[in-house]
Amino acid sequence: MWAGPGSCHARPLQLVERLVDPDGGSVVEIIGSVAGDPGPSMLANRRADIDQGFSADTVEAMLSTLSAAPGEWAQTTLTTLAQKSPKSLKLTLAAIRNARHLASLEHALNVEYRLCVRLFEDGEFIEGVRALIVDKDRQPKWSPARLQDVMPQLIAAYVAPLAPQEELGLEPSQG
Hints:
The structure is a single chain. The chain is mainly alpha-helical. The protein is built from 10 helices and no strands. The longest helix has 17 residues.
């Protein structure tokens, strides 16, 4: 039986119990009874650290900032990023920074689609899956293997429009 509000981890279970209980009340009443202020999110609590660590113009500068920052969060973030594809890190930064200049969310999603297609086609995504899930060796062989070897021309080629028939629903002149 439902025991009333509790921890945020207990609330989903309470919600399910109340929803399946024929005498639990209306959906609106049930949701209202378990709803509450979740408080600030983890991201909101880390806003200053995130802004400081990721405000630089290059991935290399961001990693340098994180390596000089005190605290466990910066070091954990640095360790996590060091395991990622150098190409994907630079492509992600380019996509995020360029998105502010795009006309709409649809245009930003089209860029994301281009990146997904090209990273799948060139084997980078497949290599990540191989290292993490298939062989489980956690030793991906990224191409290129180092951030400094990811050239601006490569980034430009990956975000450039696909062939018109391959684009994600935008007219070729809009991409």
